[in-house]
Amino acid sequence: MVEFKPFTAYIVDACRTAGGKKNGKLSGYHPGELGAAVCDALLERQKLPGAEVEDVIFGCVGQVGAQAANVGRTVVLSSRLLPESVPGTSVDRQCGSSQQAIHAAAQAVMSGVHDCCIAGGVEVMSLVPIGANIIDGMKAGHGFPMTETMNQKYEQKLKAFEQFGISTSAFSQFGGAELLAQKYQLTRQDVDRFAVSSQLRAAASTKAGKFQDEIVPLPVKRKEGESEGVHLEDEGIRGNVTAESVGKLKAMFPNGIMTPASSSQICDGASAVLICNERGLEKLGLKPMARIHSLALAAADPVVMLEGPIPASKKALEKVKMKIDDIDLYEVNEAFASVPLAWCKALGADFEKLNVNGGAMALGHPLGGTGTKLMTTLLHELKRRKKRFGLLAICEGGGTANATIVEMMPSAKL
Q: Which stretches make up the Thiolase C-terminal domain (predicted)?
């Protein structure tokens, strides 16, 4: 009997579009075209023939309309460089969809089933609004369909939403963000301060050119069809915010502390990473940027909903016998300010290592495209700082979460 020895999953390269705000500079793109642009950029940067890619796995939350019918395959068929012989598939793990795509691609190359895959994600929220794939989803004010059994099981817990004037008939990400803030004793001042920090960090990083290596330049394409040059910078950044200006905003719900400033921005965008095992690296003559050190999933209370990154991160660390202090940089998605702040408290993490270039409150949250977007930023910042370990975690609808630990390779620091 032949003993099976798993391969290692390596990230060769990672890129993203600059975020486009609602009805902004990317709003005229079909999701398939936007996803194809980042895939083609990876192939061009690595001088890799598209036929060598064995699967394209794309995260997408709003799988309806232009994002329906397997947007992963639409991406392949829209590509200039990926031949039609390359398969494509779509993943929905809510906001962590493209992080799950990374996990799926990593598992494929670790098993040896494939040697080279692209994991990515796309969401054109100007074209396919949040909740568009849920029957009466936006009308009900939630993003998770409920069964009769679920309603009965969580009826008592859902009553906690009454204090915020939020419907108690369904899960709510907004209610979850408020409950999370209560659980971890976060104040309005805490979330406002973090919201300002996210904007100022994003503005400073943009001004310093820190995103240049990760952003794929694209012609501006608005819904109206006119072209206005090249899109190179994230549109949602407000570099002139202050604690005073944010403090004047009205909370979104009675007795709540979250405001539009301390919430993620609607965003159009796509991102992708190229993943190979050692056999693929050797065969294709590629150098790894990083290796995937640990993968983890977790599921938590769907009413609080957004707490999943905490147990997922703990699992990812435990799997490789690491402590949070061993990690050099963290990216925890800023779905709401309460999520990364609660995560920091629960893990005893260093705030100065968290979302150092700003996060979704400033740079936008393109739902299914956020996982590979944040991984792209994390890898490039680790490379710039010549640091070793990074951790990515994202909260997801329904109370689930992904966590990924990466280790930079010496070849990435040359």
A: 286-407
Q: What one-letter code names the amino acid at 324?
A: I
Exposure class string for 159-170: b at 16+ Cβ within 10 A, else e: ebbeebebebeb
Confidence of residue 412 (pLDDT cuts 50, 70, 90): low
State yes or no: is 395 an active-site residue. Answer: yes
| Active-site option among 60, 95, 117, 276 | 95
Question: Of 21, 311, 306, nearest to 143 (Cα)?
Answer: 306
Q: How far is CA 232 from CA 22, 218, 264, in A?
A: 16, 7, 20
- Residue 18: phi and psi, rounded to 5, are -70, 145
Average the pLDDT over 70-96 and give the result: 98
Phi, psi (5° rounding) for residue 354? -95, 125
CA dist list (Å): 193 to 241, 246, 331, 341, 369: 11, 9, 18, 11, 26
How high is the mean pLDDT of the chain? 95
Q: What is the C-alpha separation between 189 and 181, in angstroms, rounded?
A: 12
Give the integer Cα–Cα distance in Å for 392 and 16.
16
Burial tier of 31 (Cβ tally within 10 Å: 0-12, 13-18, 19+): buried
The verdict on whether 344 is a catalytic residue reads no
Round to whole Å and give the CA distance between 331 and 55: 26
Q: Extract long-range pairs of 149-154: CB within 8 Å, 24+ residues apart.
A: 154/302, 154/303
**Which entry of 15, 276, 344, 395 is annotated as an active-site residue?**
395
Average pLDDT of 261-271?
98
- For residues 35 and 45, give the distance between their C-alpha atoms in angstroms, rounded to a whole number: 16
Q: What is the pLDDT of residues 103-142, one digit of tens each?
A: 999 999 999 999 999 999 999 999 999 988 886 544 444 4
95 is catalytic: yes
| Catalytic option among 142, 231, 365, 380 | 365
Q: How many CB atoms lie within 10 A of CB 11?
A: 27
**pTM of the predicted structure, to 2 decimals:** 0.96
- Please return the burial class of 266, using the count of CB atoms within 10 Å of its CB with bins 0-12, 13-18 and 19+: buried
Amino acid identity for residue 58 in this structure: F
414 — pLDDT class (breaks 50, 70, 90):
very low
Please state, in angstroms and rounded to a whole number, the distance separating the CA atoms of residues 102 and 111.
14
Under a CB-based contact definition with an 8 Å cutoff, are residues 128 and 136 in contact? Answer: no
201 phi and psi angles, rounded to 5 deg: -65, -45
